[in-house]
Write a structure and sequence with these properties.
This protein has 170 residues and is mainly alpha-helical. It contains 6 helices and 4 strands, in the order ααααββαββα. The chain is 46% helix and 7% strand. A hairpin with a 7-residue loop joins β1 and β2.
Length: 170
């Protein structure tokens, strides 16, 4: 809302001002898929050797069926840190948790694997997209912000070709 008010009441005309596309302006699944595809192509990150047989939480019965699940989780963690940061591993584990099937007993919420979250955060720190904060938790760096915002802008351009009414947001 503040961006819109700044545009409306600024002395610069709207034609010369361009609103910046952010992560909030595109669907999360499209952004996560695009970032995961980029991680897969770049070869800068590799899944740990235990990633092929690990469960993603105690609420799961098996490991993920998708062999490339690590890149998707890495992209999802990066997006969550962008949106909710500064955020710690405990809270991220809650975000990636689910319902535990206890047979005939009622379901109970369970957290996701903190080992998976910690490894994702280490790799994102290695790429310099995330950094530790003094008060605790992790936060997206300016490099990470620009990377995700550029990805979001590309996605919005692609979606505006399919739906012309979205072109006004570019």
């Amino acid at each position: 809302m503040n961006r819109l008010l700044n545009v409306l009441y600024s002395p610069v005309s709207i034609e010369t001002r361009r609103l910046m596309t952010t992560v909030y302006d595109v669907p999360p699944d499209a952004l996560i898929e695009s970032v995961a595809r980029d991680f897969r192509k770049s070869k800068k990150v590799k899944p740990p050797e235990w990633a092929s047989f690990v469960k993603t939480g105690v609420h799961r019965e098996k490991s993920p069926a998708d062999r490339e699940w690590w890149y998707t989780r890495l992209a999802a963690v990066l997006r969550k840190v962008y949106v909710l940061g500064p955020i710690g591993t405990e809270r991220l584990a809650s975000e990636f948790g689910g319902r535990r099937d206890r047979g005939s007993a009622p379901y109970h919420p369970r957290k996701g694997s903190r080992a998976v979250i910690r490894e994702c955060l280490k790799q994102l720190e290695g790429l310099e997209y995330v950094r530790k904060v003094d008060g605790g938790g992790r936060k997206v760096t300016p490099q990470g912000h620009s990377y995700l915002d550029n990805r979001a802008h590309e996605i919005l351009k692609r979606h505006s070709k399919e739906r012309p009414e979205l072109a006004k947001y570019l």
